[in-house]
Write a structure and sequence with these properties.
109 residues, mainly alpha
Length: 109
């Protein structure tokens, strides 16, 4: 509810949220990740099916920072994405060959 109220009352915030989430959406699509849900109202976010064989730690890392990068490219700064950075840190700090968040290993190339 707080997020919805902020989006309605702060000028430019809605467009910034749209820009941020569009970054996730585009990255997920380009990375071939199965996108499950996308919302700008209510619980804002873009969800992927993390247990899909096509979702690897590398892809999830790129997906998690894509919203921040999208804001940086459009506005020169990012105001959102604290949860995205937390997820990116967990993925980046995971020992090589492990799958944070229960991801399956990538198929051999």
């Amino acid at each position: 509810l707080t997020q919805v109220v902020l989006i309605r009352t702060l000028p430019g915030l809605r467009q910034r949220v749209v820009q941020h989430e569009a970054g996730h959406l585009l990255a997920g699509y380009l990375l071939g990740m199965p996108l499950m849900d996308y919302s700008i109202t209510g619980k804002t976010g873009t969800e992927v099916q993390a247990n899909s064989p096509s979702v690897t730690g590398d892809k999830l890392l790129l997906f998690s920072v894509a919203g921040i990068v999208s804001e940086l490219l459009e506005y020169g700064e990012a105001r959102g994405g604290s949860d995205d950075l937390r997820i990116a840190r967990v993925i980046a700090q995971a020992p090589e060959g492990t799958n944070p968040f229960g991801l399956r290993p990538a198929a051999p190339a």
